[in-house]
User: Which sequence fits this backbone?
């Protein structure tokens, strides 16, 4: 089934079930008001939501036109946002850009940061920046929402806890990252509010593209209307979602509704860095990577980070070309405090 | 007023109002079921809670005996836990123990990490460790719960958003920290679930000990029944709570119910590191500090990190010796997965 949260003026929005083709929705809030409430009691609620989804497909329940721009992130606020860096190619490139080497352990021990989860924004909400010099960069990623996971959970237990899959734009402020990471405590100000896809789907909606741990489909990232990234989320993912979840749960339990991200999707090309989409490559899911490629090739980056007015679109289509999650579509705008 | 959340088998517990002397409580859940719900709608709900608190003091409402061990953390799960390191003396000592210097900027730019907020534990719950070698250490701190804060908020706006004050034991796994911080993305596995004091209080309950930004009272930290720390939370706090909140809000809004911590309370002595309580000093709010002092004095640490069975107690008393928040009292136990 496919679930969305419609903006309704409340902090957590209203839960709806969306049709497979993303054209219609039916209210699910009579079953349970919010997605978090559904996740809190998933084993009891999910069968009812699934039945509602089937009724929606057959036209057996009232439905309305689904507009992606009416959707909030599936969880407008969450109790946890833990973002891995599972595509080690991305980590390698971004660190190279900072002049830092890739430690050998990064191939066996996942990199993960604790992100802010209190103020997610909607998939069509602007990226608000007080200062263009912050160097806003999109990061196109896949994320999962999990159920309760006990501390010390195995990878198999973690796999069973995956409830929903969605996309995320984990915006980074590249201009703030070097100084902030140098302080030693990870990201804070350099990670503003993330936006998630209009729809979150149960893994079965992904069919053969879901192998229980990752989504083997290209992530379409467009910058200002042009294809920027077509990296396959199932390729070069050094750690899959069950591994990331188990990593997060090593020393403490994770509660239902925790969101675990893949990190920026990134593919190698013949063992080395990729090529832009315009040159027939898989491209990039963030600007930092192409800047590094440019630096390697020509001594300096050419592509600027996002400026006011720049627009990013992130979407994933199934093998028949149909949008699975709807599109994240955000424009950078000046924040007037 | 003083608020607590009683464990009732639900994820968020039940909101109650507690008497000033911590002996009685009255149910507040007919007004609003949980503390998060109260914070979501604070301006409407808080006056009713305050009226209930007054009725409780005068015996005008039914009440029951308040047992601190029945309390969960005031917010059993929160949308954000952002912990500063406002006592730069602590940062300096802990970094010295890691062989790292204190950058000059740490005196003007607060250090803060994004912590896990999905699975707080109760103030009398055990600290569960799979392995004693993780090196569990308590960190006694003060924390505030805030209302909504817009992105880019001023220090004054941040000050006005402080709703409640409480204590926290922000447990650190010292054995895991060096490797994790070396990865560059901050804490994750090295910070298991934090526990907060049984009661959260509005700032007015602190009287003259609250200057609008910090609590000028000693934080009592006992280890295995012996005084370990008596550092004054109002002394050597390089950044007060409004400054910490404004730092957290620099690039994104903070939603109501976000918890902002002070970092480990730590006092200098004549400009240098302090002395143990047993030698007449203010002592320490974590073990890492005394180990550093021991290393400076004798070349090696003597005090071990917490072992199975070790107990920590964290409490703060007003100038008349009355407990303000109740006590955090936790024993380290082996986690059986």
Assistant:
């Amino acid at each position: 089934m496919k679930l969305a949260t419609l903006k309704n003026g409340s902090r957590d929005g209203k839960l709806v079930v969306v049709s497979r083709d993303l054209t219609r929705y039916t209210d699910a809030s009579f079953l349970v008001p919010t997605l978090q409430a559904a996740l809190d009691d998933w084993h009891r609620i999910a069968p009812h939501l699934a039945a509602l989804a089937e009724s929606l497909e057959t036209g057996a329940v009232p439905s309305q036109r689904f507009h992606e721009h009416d959707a909030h992130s599936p969880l407008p606020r969450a109790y946890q946002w833990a973002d891995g860096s599972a595509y080690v190619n991305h980590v390698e490139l971004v660190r190279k850009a900072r002049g830092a080497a890739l430690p050998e352990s990064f191939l066996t021990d996942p990199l993960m940061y604790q992100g802010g989860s209190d103020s997610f924004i909607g998939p069509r909400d602007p990226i608000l920046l007080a200062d263009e010099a912050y160097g806003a960069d999109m990061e196109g990623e896949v994320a999962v929402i999990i159920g309760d996971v006990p501390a010390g959970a195995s990878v198999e237990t973690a796999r069973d806890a995956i409830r929903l899959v969605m996309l995320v734009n984990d915006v980074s402020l590249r201009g703030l990252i070097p100084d902030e990471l140098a302080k030693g405590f990870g990201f804070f100000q350099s990670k503003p509010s993330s936006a998630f896809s209009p729809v979150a789907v149960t893994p079965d909606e992904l069919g053969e593209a879901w192998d229980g741990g990752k989504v083997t489909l290209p992530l379409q990232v467009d910058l200002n209307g042009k294809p920027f990234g077509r990296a396959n989320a199932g390729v070069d993912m050094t750690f899959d979602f069950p591994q990331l979840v188990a990593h997060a749960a090593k020393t403490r339990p994770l509660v239902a509704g925790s969101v675990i991200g893949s990190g920026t999707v990134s593919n190698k090309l013949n063992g080395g860095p990729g090529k832009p989409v315009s040159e027939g490559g898989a491209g990039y899911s963030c600007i930092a990577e192409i800047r590094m490629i440019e630096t390697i090739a020509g001594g300096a980056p050419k592509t600027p980070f996002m400026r006011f007015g720049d627009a990013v679109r992130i979407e994933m289509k199934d093998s028949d070309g149909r949008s699975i999650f709807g599109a994240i579509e955000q424009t950078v705008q000046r924040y007037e405090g």
Remarks:
- The two ends of chain B are 39 Å apart (CA to CA).
- The first helix of chain B runs from residue 35 to 40.
- The helical segments of chain B are 35-40, 42-58, 88-97, 155-160, 177-182, 241-248, 287-298.
- Chain B touches chain A through 56 residues (CB under 8 Å).
